Amino acid sequence: MKLGFVGLGAMGEAMATCLLRAGHELTVYNRTAAKADALVAAGAKRARTPAEATAGNELVFTMLFDDAAVQHASFGPDGIAEALGPDAVHVGCATVSLNQARRLRDGHAERGQHYASATVLGRPPAARAGQLFVVLAAADALRARILPALDAFGQKSFVVGDDPVQANLVKLCLNFMIFATIEQMAEVFTLGEKGGIAPATMFEVMSNSFYTAPVHRNYGKLMVEKAYDPPGGPMEIGLKDNGLFLEAGEDFRVPLPTASLLRDRFLQSYAAGEEGLDFVAIFERVRADAGLR
């Protein structure tokens, strides 16, 4: 397939690498051009603008940091909308607010263009290995065109609806579950530590009994090893994504008390000067609250 990819951060670069490795013809764009160098050396074409990364391609993927970056790349000067063909699809993979997801859906629809959302679950190593889980929401007529490309970086794709916004809602919900599980484990590890049970011992018992999900095994391991730096999931992403989940709760009038607690936990980490660490480092704030150092 002829594909475009806009946004080559840690996740985007890994996903684009998988698409190239799968044999797709790929054009890439990143605001910091040097981040495309490795992909260009491997055979991708370099674009100077998002529009150039879009022109003539069947699908163009976006994997950008926040609402503002996605909006600018999509509808700003030399943006995707300027070059998206009538049969092409913009496939948004970024974690954005529900309002931004609606802006993308409606903005393309007003221009007679196609838009789909394919959010992903997993960290950069999983992306590079092609082992992400993908949550797709797209009109039925578009799915068969998108799913083969998703197979390059995803081990499994879930179709959750016709409205692209639905994939963003699922992503926000599942990210919250990661944060909530980290908080649960942090409290359990801290209580055990104060009772003379090392976090590593508690982790060994839990991860080899009833608590064997990847979220327990993977994030628990990071916590026990205090593998906070360099961050695989930066603290700013935790604070941002948890905030988007709270916004969604307000949108649908759903109280989310645990998310409110997590917001404060992330802010505690910022106040402690830990904003540059992985978001699993909220464990240290739980320990500090219990008098541990």
Automatic annotation (TrEMBL):
Keyword NAD: yes
Key words, A-Z: NAD, Oxidoreductase
Domain 6-phosphogluconate dehydrogenase NADP-binding: 2-161
Domain 3-hydroxyisobutyrate dehydrogenase-like NAD-binding, first and last residues per copy: 167-283
Lipid metabolism found in the keyword field: no
Residues the record marks as active site: K171
MF terms (GO), sorted A to Z: NAD binding; NADP binding; oxidoreductase activity
InterPro entries: 6-PGluconate_DH-like_C_sf (IPR008927), 6PGD_dom2 (IPR013328), 6PGDH_NADP-bd (IPR006115), HIBADH-like_NADP-bd (IPR029154), HIBADH-related (IPR015815), HIBADH-related_NP60_sf (IPR051265), NAD(P)-bd_dom_sf (IPR036291)
Protein name, entry field: 3-hydroxyisobutyrate dehydrogenase
Native source organism of the sequence: Acidomonas methanolica NBRC 104435
